[in-house]
Amino acid sequence: MQDDSVAFFQLVAAISADFAMCAASEVDAVINDALARIGTFYCSDRSYIFLFSPDLATASNTHEWCAAGVPPQQANLQNLSSAELGHWFATWQVGNSTVITDVAALNHASHEYQLLASQGIKSLLMIPLRSNSRLIGMFGIDMVSKIQQWPDAEIAGLTLIAGNICGALLRKQAEVKAESLAFYDPVTGLANRHLMLDRIQQAQLQSNRNQFYVALLFIDVDDFKTLNDSLGFSKGDEVLKLIGQALQSVLPQGDTIGRFSADEFLVLSEMFTSERCKAVQAVTDIAARFQHAILDCPNLTAIRAKNTISIGCTLFIGGQQDTNALITQADLAMYQVKQAGGDALSFFDMELQHQADRRLILAHELRRALNENQFELFYQPQLVHPGLVLGAEVLLRWRHPEHGLLGPDAFIKFAEETGLIVEIGEYVLLHACKQLAIWQHSPGAARLELSVNISAKQLKQRNFSERVLDILQQTNIDPSVLKLELTESMLVEDFDNVVTIMQVLQAKGIRFALDDFGTGYSSLVYLKRLPLYQLKVDRSFVADLLTDENDQAIARMIILLGQTLGLEVMAEGVESVEQLKTLLHMGCYHYQGYYFSKPLPLNEFEAYVAKVSGAFLAP
């Protein structure tokens, strides 16, 4: 007996040492070896581990050793309800082991007896696996061939082994979780940016060796922002997960998919061909499978009726290019699809790269233009019948150090795309107010008004009204001589917020004009709620006023609408005396356009005011 005790504690020490030295990747093998050594020592029939689900609702047999001739039970013991474990489960939760020396001594009517006797078990020991008072599993030994006594010392030794098993499992779980966080996206479970960058580099090395094409696909979910805004971020995450699963379900074997950022995915596919035309066809086929998989996913259509993706692809051989450059190329190709309406595939070409380079240079030059005051305000006169100059619309020009004077067509659209329009718009507003402050001290110009165009991105800034009011305070101007021009399209996305901003600024004396009226989405309900001062008839209706009955009818309707609502109406783009006569006849008495003056630099505008102010324009 003494020899048995010594052998047992030597076994416990050896197993404990194995657990102490094993790496996380070796934990399962060390557990299986420990179960085999313990089972052999006791001449038992089975030794095993059960692990509970995080909510303790179910338990599954995860590790098992069986003696020769004993059929394994592991496959049959998965996702068992904890309720089936009866009072044993409650015993383990408080840290106590279950020791049954003789199953025959149990109440034969009990659930426990019937469960154990049906398997022919005569004795068993079950020790809870616990961490910080939290039950995570159970370590057990079954005896079928004999009744086993379980001395306290041996139970203590086996409890020590159970602790080693528990610690090893937790260490493995921690390392798996750390690896998952390091290399996998928590929302979709796909490879993350870090892992995708590594896989692209590996693909470049492989492509160097075999000289086969590799395709990198950049995938963006169409109109995802609208879904997020309307259904919420949790539903958005669910959609991303479903899209990832749909893409993965048709992904060619050996290819890699990952979530790059937000609603963007990367797919890396080895083409196994050195012929570009075949690689292009293979990518086209893959893209079609991706698109169909998403369109045909019932779980996605249950959330949103139509789900589409935009796909950009770059093909490369070898590792001559920087990894980030390859991603940028695929992104540029995807952006081409977006600009064309989405739901398609586009391949990168060098012209796209040239465009990207030009955009990078333009962004740098625009920032320098802001820092070095290269922008210049021009002023297009605004008049009221019979020819009095009320003020001007402020228009921006860029005095480029190399290319000379540039109009807004050369940079405004790009500034809007990149968000630079916010800084540029604030620059214009500040300098317009500074000019108004100068005029306030000049008797002949004190009541000149300036209209400043506000971009949609400016208006969406949380502190927009505060910034405007700061500029008013800084320049100390009379707010009534400042007019902010908005376009109809700016009202669509966040109408209530726009109204609030306008009301705050109107209360300080600032007036508002609705620009390009008649070309957008305004309704009478919008007009009724907006604190407007002026409607501007779009130049497209004025241009064909004399020849197109429809444009004439629209212009007349806008003028009548303005009169009905008590709004001032101004016509843009007046280029002839005939257009002016027609507008006056319709009841429009405010106007601007090339018939009177093109946009002028400051000194020429002031000279124009001095010359024209007070003159009578006889139509």
UniProtKB/TrEMBL annotation:
Residues 359-613 form the EAL domain. Residues 212-350 form the GGDEF domain. Pfam families: EAL (PF00563), GAF (PF01590), GGDEF (PF00990). Gene3D superfamilies: 3.30.450.40, 3.30.70.270, EAL domain. PROSITE patterns: EAL, GGDEF. PANTHER family: CYCLIC DI-GMP PHOSPHODIESTERASE PDEF (PTHR33121), SIGNALING PROTEIN YKOW (PTHR33121:SF70). This is Uncharacterized protein. It comes from Alishewanella tabrizica.
